[in-house]
Amino acid sequence: MVQEKGTISIHTENIFPIIKKFLYSDHEIFLRELVSNAVDAIQKAKRLVSLGQFQGELGEPLVQVKLDAEAKTITISDNGIGMTAEEIKKYINQVAFSGASEFLEKFKEAKDANEIIGQFGLGFYSAFMVADKVEIQTLSYQQGAEPARWICDGSTTFELSEGNRTERGTDIILYINEENKDFLENYKLQTILDKYAKFLPVPVQFGTKTESEPDGEDEEGKPKYKEVEKPNIINTVKPIWTKAPSELKDEDYLSFYKELYPFTEDPLFWIHLNVDYPFNLTGVLYFPKIKNDVEIQRNKIKLFSRQVFITDDVKDIVPEFLMLLHGVIDSPDIPLNVSRSFLQADGNVKKINTYITKKVADKLAELFKNDRKSYEEKWNDIGVFVKYGIVSEPKFAERAKDFVLLNNVKKDFFTLTEYREKVAPAQTDKDGNVVFLYSANADRQHSYISAAEKKGYDVLLLDGPLDNHFVSHLERDLEKTQIKRVDADVVEKLIDKDEKIESSLSEEQSKELETVFKEAITKPGMEVSVENLSADGLPVTVTMDEFMRRMKDMAAMGGGMNFYGSMPDRYKVAVNANHPLATKILAETNSDAQKALAQQAFDLALLAQGMLTGADLTAFVERSVKLI
């Protein structure tokens, strides 16, 4: 071969500064690109054999990554189709030309042409992010082809000459520059390969590893072992998402889950994705045990393109409420060097998002229908996904009506329809609204729950991180339904049935009692009123209006209600005119004694709400001791 020198055909004065600074955000990507190209070359060779275009011996496909720290080189080798000198000039020197595109065009009638990974072109040039010089040694599969050598030092000039490769395939040799010498460490390369190449469809070898093998028995008959050096194959070439569900058992899915997340509890269940129209998508999504915590476990879904890892930031592909899932998604319709703007604008990505939402809804509906008891047992984990989906995804919310569950403080479960039918007889107000009562903390609000149950009311338990938003969504979605926390008002007014309770006090006595409590209560934000309540109820009840408390809770969670969050807390203090304590206070002739009794009753009400703390709690205890 005649030695040749020339200029790389590009459309900018120098592409290398662009590659190093702008085109790739992370230098480690170079290894993914070059290994993917090597796999691509082997896949092409397989394809040519199947089409009768290549008559030679294919051999065992293998990509090798070799590190020579002393020579400061990293070599990526394959036994794929190789290149002729002319192909190097076409595929490597003409940066804007895509070798894979031409190959696909030539063999577009082939059934499995979409198996080809990546493309020559800019992916190859990622090598210059870490190397001062890049060399190619290659030998084409074509009959009579001569080996070729290409070398470039990062300028727009190259040198093309006769190569020294004797077998079909390609070596890409990177001469690593000083600022990227950390890539000359075994551990660093192993980590990158584990990240990007762990499931590539062709074996990828990185050096060797030592394993113990049986070696007969010793004199005492105990087994002996010997150390054997073996190729270090870093990938599983046929991961479970590339197989049909009928080929797999539960153990296969669980084993794969442990491979992805070694220190995680077993998942609740999983969904196997497999669709080829109107887009291509495979994968397995797992529902993890998250115990009501929506702030953990994000970025656990890994996105692949034909088994090459791309990213674990999949928020534009997977609906927001399913970001808590674990697993893998693989789609050849998503390019390796995917950009945020591409994901947001691409039509296939939007279809994938919709498809995943539907598959999850189908799976949940199936689980609920086939084994409701098991579904209820898992609700503590499943409920987070379902409620998140309901408040954030209208299409999912419509389908979730059939399998979202409500559970009460007695730990009974109901669908929305079932629960409405259960409580409607006792919990319908004077305007025909069915009122759902709920507690956010069954222990702290026990006295309020007890009062509600004495009136024949049922109380739901809604104590999850999303339940404020979930409650508001239900109220908007359910016809003629109101939802109130059980401590939002005195029990007689939670469900207004227009029932009148007579007062045992005269109007003057009620005013006097109100005055005593207003003078005794110094805590800001307390609005005192004397109410005609049941004689067997509490002497004093402290409540916050349902609307105001809900807005404040949402503001605390960052729900865009900052106006309400900045407002001072205001509570209603309902003094029970019919409780014996009211008569006792009025019968007391000493005003200080009246205030002391009022203060004690008020502190009891605060204690029931968990609002009595610090010095006020200490004073209450000391006062209680004196009264004993």
TrEMBL record:
- Domain Histidine kinase/HSP90-like ATPase, first and last residues per copy: 26-180
- Give the superkingdom in one word: Bacteria
Q: Extract the SMART domains matched here.
A: HATPase_c (SM00387)
The gene designation is htpG
Q: Which family does it belong to?
A: Belongs to the heat shock protein 90 family.
Indicate what this protein is called per its UniProt record.
Molecular chaperone HtpG
**UniProt cross-references to InterPro entries, sorted A to Z:** HATPase_C_sf, HATPase_dom, Heat_shock_protein_90_CS, HSP90_C, Hsp90_fam, Hsp90_N, Ribosomal_Su5_D2-typ_SF
Which PANTHER family does the UniProt record give?
HEAT SHOCK PROTEIN 90 FAMILY MEMBER
Q: Which UniProt keywords apply?
A: ATP-binding, Chaperone, Nucleotide-binding
